[in-house]
């Protein structure tokens, strides 16, 4: 079942705010929260993440029904990619080197910003590229 395209963009906006706060404060607990949000989105789809729940319960009822839909697999893959960067960031902040935490968090922030502001989902594009390559390889 396809999903409302506004949901992942809303989640990306919240993600960008959290990741920017991590970079400003160096707070690993905030990054741990974002890692959990990515993990829930990767495991159950973007609708199962905390930001998906917030969009579904508080935002969508106020902005009306969706007019544009997308398949759920690309945004879910993007959550997996975000999870990988968040885990790397957590390792960098917790164990070191700190530059790894900063770089991984900054990369995730850049991707979230692109999705939130421009609707360009890097993880989704990676998913489509992987699909094209695996279909050709068969």
Number of helices: 6
Identify the strand order in the major beta sheet.
1-2
Largest sheet: 2 strands, antiparallel
Distance between the termini: 26 Å
Order of helices and strands: EHHHEHHH
Number of strands: 2
The SS-based structural class is mainly alpha
Radius of gyration: 15 Å
Mean pLDDT: 96
Amount of helix:
over 70%
Question: Which segments are poorly predicted (pLDDT under 50) over 5 or more consecutive residues?
Answer: none
Shape: globular
| Strand fraction | under 5%
Summarize the structure.
The protein contains six helices and two strands, in the order βαααβααα.
Plain-language structure description:
The chain has 138 residues and is mainly alpha-helical. 80% of the residues lie in helices and 3% in strands. The chain is built from six helices and two strands, in the order βαααβααα. It has helices spanning 6-25, 28-44, 50-63, 73-94, 98-118, 122-137, and strands at 3-4, 69-70. A two-stranded antiparallel ribbon has the order 1-2. Helix 1 (6-25) runs antiparallel to helix 2 (28-44) and helix 1 runs antiparallel to helix 5 (98-118). It is globular, with a radius of gyration of 15 Å. The relative contact order is 0.17.
How are the elements arranged and paired?
Elements: E1 3-4, H1 6-25, H2 28-44, H3 50-63, E2 69-70, H4 73-94, H5 98-118, H6 122-137
Helix pairs in contact: 1-2, 1-3, 1-5, 2-4, 4-5, 4-6
Task: Record keyword descriptors for this entry.
single chain; 138 residues; mainly alpha; two-stranded antiparallel sheet; 6 helices; globular
């Amino acid at each position: 079942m396809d999903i409302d395209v506004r949901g992942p963009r809303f989640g990306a906006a919240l993600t960008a705010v959290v990741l920017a706060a991590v970079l400003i404060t160096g707070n690993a607990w905030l990054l741990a929260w974002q890692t959990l949000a990515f993990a829930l989105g990767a495991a159950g789809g973007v609708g199962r993440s905390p930001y998906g729940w917030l969009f579904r319960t508080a935002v969508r009822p106020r902005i009306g029904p969706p007019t544009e839909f997308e398949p759920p697999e690309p945004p879910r893959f993007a959550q997996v990619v975000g999870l990988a960067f968040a885990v790397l960031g957590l390792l960098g902040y917790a164990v070191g080197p700190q530059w790894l935490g900063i770089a991984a968090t900054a990369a995730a922030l850049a991707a979230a910003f692109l999705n939130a502001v421009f609707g360009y989902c890097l993880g989704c594009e990676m998913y489509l590229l992987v699909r094209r390559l695996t279909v050709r390889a068969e």
